[in-house]
Amino acid sequence: FVGQALSFSVHAEQSATINAWLHGETGLQALAIHEAPCGYCRQFLYEMATVNQNFVLLVKSNESQPEQTYTSNKLPHFLPEPFGPADLGLTGGLMQTVFHDLETYSTDDTDD
């Protein structure tokens, strides 16, 4: 992706979160990542409905150590002055169960 903006791609943190949601998860407790998340991902993760329920980021500690060591921090450590749905008077967020009362119908005569 030489010369391309990473903002036009799906980041690993976003992919893992959406994959969990699409497989029926209603929130995340922790996410293990190799580097500290970028600002875009920090905001994305902050807007999850479960972010204030002790959500933890596990970040790989030391590149030179062969064993997998991680530091554990809550999201506010990475996003000290967050702005999210609650600041707009909204409840919930990403991964919240919402009933939209939608129906599907077809005018195709072959759908009997």
From TrEMBL:
Family matches, as CDD domains: cytidine_deaminase
GO BP, sorted A to Z: nucleobase-containing small molecule metabolic process; pyrimidine-containing compound metabolic process
PROSITE patterns: CYT_DCMP_DEAMINASES_2
Family per similarity comment: Belongs to the cytidine and deoxycytidylate deaminase family.
Coiled coil: none
Domain of life the protein comes from: Bacteria
Protein name: Cytidine deaminase
Xref: InterPro entries: CMP_dCMP_dom, Cyt/Deoxycyt_deaminase, Cytidine_deaminase-like
An example Gene Ontology CC term for this record: cytosol
GO terms for MF: cytidine deaminase activity; zinc ion binding
Residue ranges occupied by any CMP/dCMP-type deaminase domain in the UniProt entry: 1-86
Originating species: Cylindrospermopsis raciborskii CENA302
